[in-house]
Amino acid sequence: MHEGSCLCGAVRFEVTCALPPPAACHCSQCRKQSGHFWVSTDVPRSAVTIHGAEKLTWFRSSEKVRRGFCSTCGSFLFWDPLQSEKDIIAIAMGAFDKPTDTRLAKHLFVAHKGDYYEITDDLPRHQG
After folding, report:
1. CA dihedral in degrees (90, 95, 99, 102; nearest 10)?
2. Residue 40 banded pLDDT, cuts 50, 70, 90
3. Residue 76 and residue 38: Cα distance in Å, rounded?
């Protein structure tokens, strides 16, 4: 089991499966909400338990996606694809307590990355 929380601890979560290798998203929405690029792992909804859900606020950033954050401290925790055939939810890697037992697998939306940094690893890169 893996556990994690927001910065203030008002929202905590547990994941009962192994964490799949995460992806770094460089799209403008993830950069604007997180302050940099955002790294998350996609896990089955059935493997996630959220404690303190009354402190979780959802922002619908598009018709297809909502983003969950703590209403107390503002930590961006979840990326929820509303119209996906897959029954998954993405969870911010930075919110997990150690150890995560996984490693970054790829970069997404690199054509949209910020101009103030470079991607210097050899992981796969997807332009869009």
Report:
1. 30
2. very high
3. 9
CA atoms of 44 and 123, how far apart (whole Å): 24
CATH number at residue 35: 2.170.150.70
The amino acid at residue 128 is G
pLDDT per position as a tens digit, 71-126 = 999 999 999 998 777 899 999 999 999 999 999 999 999 999 999 999 999 999 99
Domains held by the chain: number: 1
Burial level of 29, CB count in 10 A (0-12/13-18/19+)? middle
The parent domain of residue 100 ranges over 2-112
Q: Which residue type, as a one-letter code, is found at position 20?
A: P
Structure tokens at 5: 């929380």
